[in-house]
Design goal:
The chain is α+β, with helices and mostly antiparallel strands and about 290 residues long. It is built from nine helices and 14 strands. The chain has a single domain, classed as Penicillin V Acylase, Chain A, CATH 3.60.60. Strands 9-8-7-6-5-4-3-14 form an eight-stranded antiparallel beta sheet. It has a six-stranded antiparallel beta sheet with strand order 10-1-2-11-12-13, covered by helices on one side. The two termini are about 25 Å apart.
């Protein structure tokens, strides 16, 4: 345990705070496996993650990717038993002080996962969900399509939906009318968005979960700007999920906790999966409440 703690401390000192993620998805005729949704999670390697099954009382159960410790613990993405999956990326093109100045009225990801059965339901409650939240980017999917959400300043947000095509996002605003503070687009965010757009555009035929796993592992632009990074910023998890219309969702997950060997799992999220007791299924440390 002492050696493990020393590794985490050394990594945390070696890397500055990393507020970055890459999100992408495909839906409709673009996908061979229903809606596909993916996230590469990048952050300061100062903590341990876990994947947890959560059964809230009188609400939808969900499987969540959590940061258990570190400077920003909490839920980072997930999928619920109704087949709605949501992943997030920091709006780090705005200064942190600006983002923190916005009042957050509820935990956005857990609100989506515990309450909504479809993108249509999320859209119907968009004002209640997205107005009054800190700047952030979301990509949400169900079996019928994708929804990209950019939450800006002063209660502004924008939704882009696609039932037949691809969507992607990194850490800067595509719709600058949502912000009053000028954004600073980092070279990593710009490079990653260009790269994931290029890989998606170059693909021939429909996308599969295996295609998304290969995109997740791409190291084309070096340790700092690639989709999977191990330089000044560090990729800690890769989440790729298929949400078919007439079958159970399938999750491919790579968990890369600092100081540990990568762990890869493939789970079919059928009735037997959701019938498991609540708890940690992968990874884990002393964890905060969901």
């Amino acid at each position: 345990m002492i050696r493990h703690a020393a590794i985490l401390i050394a990594l945390a000192l070696a890397w500055p705070t990393a507020e970055a993620c890459t999100l992408w998805g495909a839906a409709g005729a673009a996908s061979a496996e229903g809606t596909l949704l993916a996230k590469n999670r990048d952050w300061k390697p100062d903590h341990i993650q876990s994947v947890r099954l959560v059964h809230p009382a009188d609400k939808l159960s969900y499987l969540g990717l959590f940061a258990d410790t570190g400077s920003e613990p909490g839920l980072k993405g997930g999928v619920n038993e109704a087949g709605v999956s949501v992943v997030s990326a920091e709006a780090s093109s705005l200064p942190k002080a600006v983002r923190d100045a916005e009042v957050q009225h509820h935990r956005l990801l857990s609100a989506i996962l515990t309450q909504y059965h479809s993108l249509d339901e999320v859209s119907a409650h968009a004002d209640a969900l997205f107005t009054g939240n800190k700047p952030v980017f979301l990509l949400i999917g169900d079996a019928h399509g994708l929804m990209r959400v950019e939450i800006g300043q002063d209660g502004k947000y924008a939704i882009t939906r696609s039932a037949n095509g691809i969507l992607a996002h990194t850490n800067h605003y595509l719709d600058t009318s949502l912000i009053s503070t000028p954004q600073k687009i980092g070279p990593s965010s710009a490079t990653r968005l260009s790269r994931v757009d290029t890989l998606l555009a170059e693909h021939t035929g429909t996308y599969t979960l295996a295609d998304f796993a290969r995109i997740s592992a791409d190291r084309h632009d070096g340790p700092d700007n690639s989709l999977w990074r191990n330089g000044h910023e560090y990729t800690l998890a890769g989440w790729q999920i298929a949400l078919p219309e007439h079958a159970a969702p399938h999750l491919h997950l790579v968990l890369a906790n600092p100081g540990e060997a990568e762990r890869k799992v493939d789970w079919t999220l059928d009735k037997a999966f959701w019938a498991q007791p609540e708890g940690v299924l992968l990874g884990g440390a002393a964890a905060p409440a969901a």
